[in-house]
Prior knowledge:
heterodimer; A: alpha/beta; Rossmann fold; six-stranded mixed beta sheet; four-stranded antiparallel beta sheet; 10 helices; 14 strands; elongated; B: mainly alpha; D-Maltodextrin-Binding Protein, domain 2; four-stranded mixed beta sheet
Amino acid sequence: MLELDELSKRYGETVALDRLGFAVDEGQAFGFVGPNGAGKTTAMRIVIGVLAADAGEVRWRGAPLDAETRRRFGYMPEERGLYPKMAVGQQLAYLGELHGMSDPRARESAALWMKRLGIAERADDKVEELSLGNQQRVQLGTALVHEPEALILDEPFSGLDPVGVDVLSEVLLGVARERGVPVIFSSHQLELVERLCDAVAIIRAGRLVATGGVAELRAERAGRRWRLEVDGAPGTPAWAARVAGATPLGNDVYELAEDTDPQGLLDAARAAGPVTRFGPEVPTLAELFRDVIGRDSEREAAR
Amino acid sequence: MSGRRAIYLTSRREVREGLRSRALIISTGIQVAIVVAIVIVAGITGGDETNEYDIGYVGSDAKAVVDEARSAASAFDAEVSPREYADPAAARAAVDGEDIDAAIAGRELIARTDPSDTLTSLLQSSSREVRGSEALRSRGLSEREIDAALEPPPLALVEVGEGSGGSRIAFIGSLLLYVAILSFGIAVATAVVVEKSTRVVEVILAAIRPVQLLTGKVLGIGLLGLCQVTLIAVAGIATALITGSVDLPDSTAGAAVLVVVYFLLGYLMYAAAFAVSGAIVSRQEDVQSASAPLTILLIAGYLVAISTIDSPDSTIAEISTFFPPLAPMVVPGRAAQGALPAWELAVSIVLMLAATVLLLWLAARIYDRVVLRMGAPLKLRQVLRLAR
């Protein structure tokens, strides 16, 4: 388990992280989401050790992270970075060695990852001669070449075309599922995060707003919203107005006031026609995100 | 992984990339060519020529004079080939027919009109010596007494003024050090800022510590520089030896060693500072202005060195010897001219070492704090505050 415990960081007067904490299980694909400037990059840089926290600590398998352990992690920074004039294969092997591999093993692993990422035939080309999409693959290769124990990826999907997104998703899920590596990545593509991730952390202004399994978080918020479709009666029907405590939200979704029994809504609908669909309306991650971020900023404004 | 392995890996990368870079190989070739050319041209324009004289003689007294002239010829930058003639008329005819340059017959020196001063003074002094020793021998003096009387220890030769071998070596040495420290220092600054501007530095620093990256970079580029300086120095000395175009003074070997030593010390000190100048900016085009103070110091050192070539004992040369930023360009030149007392050299090296260690330490601290910082170039004041 990788634990972030009460991480705080200030840049002068600006608070970047405010006692941020969450935990990621091994083998988990973990989404790290939040509005721009929420502190995602700062948190990831602290985990990987290129930045020091003012307070708090990061633990891996129960022990505080040290340089030796971090070297076995894989990292892809938000700002992509490669040596433009270095050959692809050499670059990957070099990073494998910097992360502690022997020379022959690093070369072997570089060749393997170039094949997996579909850039094997570019091994001897300089990085600057590659297309941006292929450079992105090399970048991912630098995070993976040393067979890391944990992967920290800052916006790995940004700038990728749909095919690239699919290749990357497959590789990341493969690493997480087959090798039990925790894969933490930040992203603004919430549909993608919902599809790929087992768990998420949502942060705002350096603080944790919500964390947990994606399915659990969504079910928790389902609560008072219900979807109900009546055959032959699309739109907002007249009968709904007669149900006390039910507010139609449109598109066959109703929000019930507290203490209102959903069965009352169902009874009223059945009286109007045959009910084809009835169940709790689970919010998407994007809806959930807007909801919790919105409520958090309201709370802050009220203070 | 040990820090040493991280340093080894990063310096190996610099060496490999350097050897693959056409710019480095071309610049090394050009510099070797320039130094070789300077040595050869110096030989053509300023070197001593050897004159060859064919000298005739008539009789055994004359033969003794010519033999003496033959053994004394090297001091006159000359070579003498003796030729025997049966009588003075034959010798005179040979001189007149330009078969030989001069002849000695009895008490006469036969030469064509307006003979060369070198030739006449060589033969006159030889004649004086032979006659003198004969006179002394007839007075019953031993050979040892005669030698002591006629060949007292020569006056020590002190060469002053332009054009001596030592000053030429001093000039080449200062130029070489100035060019090498400047170009490899700039190479360090550029390598640092390229890593920043391409953002690859964050990927590297996720694996190793900043001080390891900095050390590996300085050492790797320094190794390339050391190879280049050694290659140029060896090429220059080899050219001088092979063509014989420059009389290498005895201090040459020592000066060559000092060039290498002062390259190492000067490079390490300047490389540390250049690395900081690369780290405080974010874009490659800002490197030049950030490293301008260092370039100016190097130019100052070079100017002091060439302006004191004719006066290696001057106060300014002496002060510069003890001022580490200028010393690398000045000291080997003074040593080449034999104008550097041992204690001054020792103090200079100790000061250089101290300055180098201090700057490397300071650079590591600053580099650590600024290398991930992006944006406007930092001011000197901000940098010094960060170093605290």
